[in-house]
Fold this protein.
Amino acid sequence: MVHASPQVTAAQVLDAGRRAEADGRLDYAIQFYRHLTDHHAGAPEAEEAREALSRLKRQTNSLDGFPRTRPAGPPPLRNSGYPNTSDTARLGPKVGRGPIRIAPAGAVQPSPGIVLPESDTDYFAGRLVAHAFVGIGVFLAVAGLLATIAALLLPSEKLALLPEWVVALRPVVGLTGAAAGVVLFLLGQIARAIFDIASASRDLAAIERAKVEHANASLR
């Protein structure tokens, strides 16, 4: 027996929005929630999406803080079949383009779907290295500052026992270690940001592929 792949449901879209909000990617989270309120208005997930939009609206203090343009990555689910009144008046009606519908889970003849990726396990090795860079950077920065302070406060009788090159380099070594720690910390943070963006783009691309597949299946 041939088993149909799981379909993208309202619960999955809501879960993707929550993951994006938890990761701080509010632009993507808002678009996921708006898709639920537009396409699944009668579902329980739509009510949760409305509450989430209200919460994000209060955080930004105005609707102007909501993104209204296409993001840099692959676009989230959008209602391309029903433009708003102002867009229709400005651009005119779109002929021959019906709304894109996602078949509900358990349909009689479901089209092939995809499973949303779990972003928490994406790029595990890269994220581990980035966290290691951050930890080592913090350690070197703190150790370098402490070494510099200790070298400056070292008694003169103990300095006389050290080689001359050690005495000459004692302030530089600590500052160099602290600077190296700051650089490693910044590199680790940049790497984590890159992996977060890549994970979000993959989630959006997966949903976009599901939308296209369901649209093609509805035309057959």
